Amino acid sequence: MSVPVAFSDIGKPANDILNKDFYHTTAANLEVKSKAPNGVTFNVKGKSAHEGPISGSVSTILPRMGPFTVGARRTKYYDQLEGKYQDKATGLTLTQSWTTSNSLDTKVELEDQLAKGLKAEVLSNYLPAKQAYGGKVNLYYKQPNLHFRTFFDLFKGPTANIDAVLGHEGFLVGAEAGYDVQKAAVTKYSAAIGYSLRQYAATIQATNNLSVFSASYYHAVNSEVEAGAKATWDSKAGNNVGLEIASKYKLDPSSFAKAKINDRGIAALAYNVKLSTGVTLGLGASFDTQNLSQAAHKVGASFTFEG
């Protein structure tokens, strides 16, 4: 197994079983992905929450013209026009965007030039109406057994957030920390250890300044069945330990079902099926098993079309 890219990914196998592909969290979710013969890519996403307004986004990407890419995107909050220049020979990528909130955003990326496995990002944004500036510098360093990331916010604080994951023969060790330069104080810190192979993975994490402890386990029982469990204890909230267990069963090559339940008696079921080429349907429901007569249950559906 490869080393996780980020500290938060150390427990990813169990987290995916417990959280991914459960469709009851939104009433309806629609995603349409299409690519025209001339190379224009068109993506539409819409989401209807159980409570609150409907949100959506639209993006259009024109075909690459040499090193240049141009696109437009519309979200719930703003429209955005974006242009990108990429030079693969030098590892340089320049992205410039302008939104309807009148924000000019620039991102410069340089990969494998300063050092092998090192990617540097410089991000800036300018709000002409407010005469306000923002700037960030991010560094990503990847080696076969080590992933290291740093994020610097130059105008807020300044602050620095760092995380690292080290792996060897399935064993994993990770840590993350935050530091405020102006306050000269550590703002957060977390640590984790784990063991991960293709068939199973176990992780112990201490997050929120080592105040929230969790242990998770993932097991690929066979080619059809996967299972996962997670226990969480918040030392500041009391002595209660939260527990979740989940399983996934592959019904056939085009469909699967999932189920999970937690210590509070909240159960969830999900079903995913590929109806035809490029068409996927997901159905989900959650139930409060201790209050079946009350209207606390949720049902959701997801449709994805690709063409």
UniProtKB/TrEMBL annotation:
Gene3D superfamilies membership: Porin
Any single Gene Ontology cellular-component annotation: mitochondrial outer membrane
Primary residence: mitochondrion
PROSITE patterns xref list: EUKARYOTIC_PORIN (PS00558)
Pfam families per the UniProt record, alphabetical: Porin_3 (PF01459)
Matches recorded under CDD domains: Porin3_VDAC
GO MF, any single term: voltage-gated monoatomic anion channel activity
Compartments it resides in: Mitochondrion outer membrane
Keywords: Ion transport, Membrane, Mitochondrion, Mitochondrion outer membrane, Porin, Transmembrane, Transmembrane beta strand, Transport
Family, similarity comment: Belongs to the eukaryotic mitochondrial porin family.
Protein name per UniProt: Mitochondrial outer membrane protein porin
Source species: Endocarpon pusillum (strain Z07020 / HMAS-L-300199)
